[in-house]
Each structure stands twice: as structure tokens, then as C-alpha cells.
Design a protein that fits this description.
CATH architecture: 3-Layer(aba) Sandwich
Organism: Chromera velia CCMP2878
Pfam families: Hist_deacetyl (PF00850)
Shape: globular
GO molecular function, one term: hydrolase activity
Order of helices and strands: HEHHHHEHEHEEHEHEHHEEHEHE
Number of helices: 13
Number of domains: 1
Strand content: 15-25%
Radius of gyration: 19 Å
Oligomer: single chain
Number of strands: 11
Protein name: Histone deacetylase domain-containing protein
CATH class: Alpha Beta
InterPro entries: HDAC_classIV, HDACs, His_deacetylse_dom, His_deacetylse_dom_sf, Ureohydrolase_dom_sf
């Protein structure tokens, strides 16, 4: 998608990230991540190009090897972002939010459900025991609802805010659904969010929040039926990050849906997620997720290794490396081949100012075009 590249460039130009602050996973995601959530036959048929025309038509995208690469590494970016959030507190992904994908079929331009895959991976790795998915995209995450409710351990809670008149027209039942009438705006949406989210955070008690932001509730979105302003979207994102950090709960954001003929304007709108995360990070003075919750019991603890110092094995089958060379940057901005997940310190020194504590920077996971072998 062009918006991935545009958003990557927007983050660079806005000063939220610098070229030498990016990291990329250097290995393909293991099939077991996908088959733990999706049907083995469905996974194999998609990867091999064997899905029949009817199932591809339901997805809404033509099959190609490039689509396979993009799909797999976009999910890997969401997993990486979740892993980094568990370790450093706040993370965001430039891609992600494929919430219409079900156990054995894809729908609505989505093939595999990256947020449920990420939740499953971090739970199995022992990074979290309970994961809350906060889905504020204008469309209900029907695939997420079905997959979360099917988990016997009930360790994943799906919260969805959406327009009831919008796709999908046959809704699934999330753990909690909040449906809005067509045309609902900032006041109605934000009032309900302020009422519901704190209650869910306190009652479910997650170890990690996966936040699917989505900018399709925007008043000018091509496929949205709500009327949130850009200020409303910003306030929404700020509220989610603040409520999580106040409780010491790591939060990982993915961009979700957004549709506009002007890709640069769309990218800037998606950039609100990163800008909001940066602001909350500054307010929290270097909140570090898991580490903060340990601080009271271990004042002399060693700070976790920062993303800038990190190279090699992140754990859980994920390897990453720094993106430093200009040749790699050129391939990011020019190659249409595939998407690769990139983790990045979210806030450069320019954006934050001087650090007054040795706190670990927050991290983002960013998907951008880059040729990879899968």
C-alpha cells in the first residue's frame, strides 16, 4: 500500500524518527504464528495461491506473491510492536489492523488477523497473560470478535467501537460492542470512550493493550460513516495512551483503516497515532512499561537495553537489525516489492528535547516497502 511508504516518510520528515533509529526483522515469521489462530488449510492455500475465486473475491484483493509477502510481514510487524511494547512500554506499527480475518476465511481486504496473532504470540511467550484489544476503527472487527470469543482461556478481550450501519453488515459479538449511528461526531464518540475504556481496563486487568486506531471514523473518509474531526481523532488517541500509561499497562498501536484519494493527507492522519504516543511519552517522563512496575521493588535494577543498542535476537523467534545505510533507505522509498516490519525509537532527540533520566525510549514498529525473501 502506498500509504505505508507515505507514513514512513511522514515520520521521518516530522522528526518523530530518524533514519538510523530504525530496525528490521531479518527473518520470516514462522507459520506456527498463523496456524495457531487460523486454519492450517486456509493458511497453506493462501500462501500457495490455491484459494478459489470465491474466497479471494470475499477478501477483495487479487492474489500475488507480493500480497503474500506483504501479508506475512505486516503481521510480523504487529507481533514485533507487541513484543517491544511489553518490554519498553509504548510501541506503534505503521501497518496492521487486519480485523476482518476469521479462522478459515478472509474478508474486507484482510487475510490473517494480525492483532489476535500478536496476542497469541505474546501470551505464549509469557510476556502477557491477558490482552485487551481496543478497536476504534469505524468498522466492527468481526474476525477479531469471533477469534477472541473462541479462545477457551478467555485471555483476550475484544472491545469494539464502530458505526452500526457500516461493513460488516452481519456483525459478530465482541466481548463489548459500542455501536454508533451514522453521522456521530466527536462529542458522542469521546464521551462514550471516556465512559467505557477505563471501566474495561480496570475490570479485565490486561497486561498488554493492542490498540487498533483507524482513521476511517474521520468525517471525510471515503468508507467511513462517522464524523470525527482530526482534533477528535487526536483526542481519542491521547485518551487511549493516557489511560494505559496511568495504569502501567503497555500499549501497542496499529494504524487500522483509512481511505482517501490524497495519500499524503491520509498518511498525516495516520501519523496522529504516533504524535499522540510521543506526547503521552513526554508526559509520562519516559514511562517504560514493565520496568516501571518493577521500580518500587528494585530501585537499583538495571535499565532494559534500549532499542538503539538492540541487535540480534529479541526472543520468541524474532530477529532484528538496525536500518542505517543510505542504500537501505533508498530501497524503502523506491521499491514496491513488499512490506517489511521496522522497529524504531518513536521519539528522536529533536522531538523530545534532552532526556533528563536514563529512561528507555518508546519504540514503534513500522512497515515500509523493502524487498525481502519469504
Amino acid at each position: 500500500m502506498r500509504k505505508f511508504t507515505s507514513l514512513f516518510l511522514h515520520l521521518l520528515r516530522s522528526g518523530l524518527a530518524k533514519r538510523d533509529e530504525f530496525f528490521i526483522p531479518v527473518e520470516a515469521p514462522p507459520p506456527s504464528w498463523f496456524t495457531a489462530v487460523h486454519c492450517q488449510e486456509y493458511f497453506s492455500d493462501f500462501v500457495s495461491g490455491s484459494l478459489d475465486e470465491k474466497r479471494m473475491r470475499r477478501i477483495g484483493l487479487p492474489w500475488s506473491p507480493q500480497l503474500v509477502r506483504r501479508t506475512l510481514v505486516e503481521a510480523a510487524g504487529t507481533v514485533l510492536s507487541a513484543q517491544l511494547a511489553c518490554e519498553f512500554g509504548i510501541a506503534c506499527s505503521l501497518g496492521g489492523g487486519t480485523h476482518h480475518a476469521h479462522h478459515n476465511f478472509g474478508s474486507g481486504f484482510t487475510i490473517f488477523n494480525d492483532v489476535v496473532i500478536a496476542a497469541d504470540v505474546v501470551i505464549k511467550e509469557g510476556r502477557a497473560s491477558r490482552v485487551l484489544i481496543v478497536d476504534l476503527d469505524v468498522h466492527q472487527g468481526d474476525g477479531t470478535a469471533a477469534l477472541a470469543s473462541a479462545r477457551p482461556s478467555k485471555d483476550v478481550f475484544a472491545l469494539s467501537f464502530h458505526c452500526g450501519a457500516n461493513f460488516p453488515f452481519r456483525k459478530e459479538t465482541s466481548d463489548l460492542d459500542v455501536s454508533f449511528e451514522r453521522g456521530a461526531g466527536d462529542d458522542e464518540f469521546l464521551s462514550k470512550l471516556r465512559e467505557v475504556l477505563p471501566s474495561v481496563l480496570d475490570s479485565f486487568g490486561p497486561d498488554l493493550v493492542l490498540y487498533l486506531s483507524g482513521v476511517d471514523p474521520f468525517e471525510g473518509d471515503k468508507l467511513g460513516l462517522l464524523n470525527l474531526s482530526e482534533d477528535g481523532l487526536r483526542e481519542r488517541d491521547l485518551f487511549v495512551f493516557r489511560e494505559c500509561t496511568r495504569r502501567g499497562v503497555p500499549v501497542s498501536g496499529v494504524i487500522g483503516g483509512g481511505y482517501d484519494d490524497d495519500v499524503d493527507k491520509l498518511a498525516a492522519r495516520h501519523g496522529l497515532l504516533f504524535e499522540s504516543a510521543a506526547q503521552v511519552w513526554r508526559e509520562a517522563e519516559g514511562w517504560g512499561g514493565r520496568g516501571v512496575r518493577r521500580r518500587e521493588s528494585s530501585e537499583q535494577r538495571q535499565q532494559p537495553e534500549s532499542p538503539q543498542e538492540r541487535k540480534g535476537d529479541l526472543g520468541g523467534g524474532m530477529r532484528l537489525e538496525r536500518l542505517e545505510s543510505s542504500s537501505k533507505l533508498e530501497s524503502l522509498t523506491s521499491s514496491p516489492a513488499a512490506n517489511v516490519s521496522i522497529s524504531s525509537p518513536l521519539f528522536s532527540e529533536k522531538a523530545v528535547g534532552s532526556f533528563v533520566t536514563p529512561a528507555v525510549p518508546a519504540v514503534s514498529a513500522v512497515s515500509t516497502p523493502l524487498p525481502v525473501e519469504i
